[in-house]
Amino acid sequence: MNLKFTHDLIGICSRPIIFNTYQCYLKEAFNNLTIDMSFAEKQGFHFGAKLVRGAYLDFERKRAAEIGYPDPINPSYESTCRMYDRVVGECLNAISAHKKVCIMVASHNEESVNFTTERMSQLGIKPNHHQVSVSSIPSNIHIVPILASIRKNPTV
Fold first, then answer.
1. Which residues are bridge partners to 102 per DSSP?
2. What average pLDDT score do residues 79-104 get?
3. N or C: which end of the chain has fewer CB within 10 A?
4. Residue ranges covered by each domain of the chain
5. Which of the pair, 55 or 126, is modelled with greater confidence?
6. CB–CB of 24/52 below 8 Å?
7. Which string of DSSP letters, residue by residue, matches the chain?
8. Residue 20 has pLDDT above 60, yes or no
9. CA distances (Å), 73 to each of 35, 50, 63, 69, 78, in order?
């Protein structure tokens, strides 16, 4: 039923209508994302992703223990950071290749926001590109200098 509904909307929608959340503290986040992106591309619809580090670590570990499957959480904070950057990078690569991918980079982490903006610049994706949104900008990032930089160099 859901797939039929989605197929009925192909050609009507020029943007994703559903954004899936990818919890990057999970070991399978990158694999899940690439499988879903590939499926969307093959089916011809727009892929939408909200990329987060995640907030359900305790729940996931408890559930794994209760049900008896291996811990699905990355082994360290650093590995979660690497996973987050890898997932963001994969999405930005797809956007730079003009694929039907839209993302929301949802992070309170300054390094992640910096990685995103630097990678966008390297790929020639403008800061105001309609396929990339950033939310939850860390309070310690001063947005005024960032906006001033964008205004001075709008082609970044």
1. 48
2. 96
3. N
4. 2-152
5. 126
6. yes
7. -HHHHHHHHBTTBSS-S-EEEEETTBTTHHHHHHHHHHHHHHHT--EEEEEE--S-HHHHHHHHHHHT----B-SSHHHHHHHHHHHHHHHHHHHHTT-SEEEEEE---HHHHHHHHHHHHHHT--TT-TTEEEES--TTS-HHHHHHHHHH-TT-
8. yes
9. 19, 18, 12, 12, 12
Location of structure tokens 């990678």:
119
Q: Which two tokens stand for residue 119?
A: 């990678």
Q: What's the CA gap between 104 and 122, in Å, rounded?
A: 19
Residue 26, Cβ neighbours under 10 Å: how many?
19
Residue 110 near residue 140 (C-beta atoms within 8 A):
yes
For the record, the structure tokens of 16 come out as 């994703």
Q: Hey, what are 25's tokens?
A: 């503290």
* 97 token code pair: 């290749």
